[in-house]
Design a protein that fits this description.
The protein contains no helices and 16 strands. It is an all-beta fold. The mean pLDDT is 84.
Length: 186
Amino acid sequence: GVVQKNLSINGNTLRVGGVSYSTGIGTHAASTITYNLAGQYTAFTALVGIDSEEDNKGTGSVISQVIGDGKVLFTTGTMTNGQTQSASVDLIGVQTLQLVATNGIANSIDYDHADWANAMITVGSSLPTAPSSLTAKLTTTVALNWTASVNATGYTVQRSSDGTNYTTLVAGLSATSYTDASVLAL
C-alpha cells in the first residue's frame, strides 16, 4: 500500500492500541519515510504500533525505528498487535530523518500495518528571531541599521548587483549597522 497521511494504510482512521488518532502516518512494513530537516528541528514524537484494524484479521509483527543521519535514535524491538511504544527523540542538528518500519518476522508481511500516531516534528525556541527595525538610507553611501534579536548568534549582510551572485560584507553578533561606501550612484 501507499504511505498515508492521517490515515491507516487501508485509508481508515489511525487506531493504535485501540485508540483512534486524527493525525499521524499509516504505512506497511517494510517502508522508509525520509525527511530533509536541514538541522532546523528539535524533536520527533509519536505513538508507534500496529494499526488496530488488523486485530481481528491476524497477528502483525513490526519493528519501528527512528534514524537520524544514519544513526538509530529509537527502536521498538519486535511489536505485535495491541503493543505500543512512545517515541520521543532529540533531533537537534539532525539533517536527515528516517522513519523505518521493518517486518518483525522474516519473510512475513501479513498484517504489518505500522502506524506513527500523533507523529510530530517540533521546532524549539532555539531558532533566532529576525532582527527588527531595519532601515536603509541612500546618499553617496548605503547605510543599514537594525535592532538585534535576543537569541541571534550573528548577522550577515550581503550585496549583489545581479540578484544571483552575492558578496558577504559583514557578519557578527555585535553588528547592528553597516555602511557601504563602494556603491555607485545611478
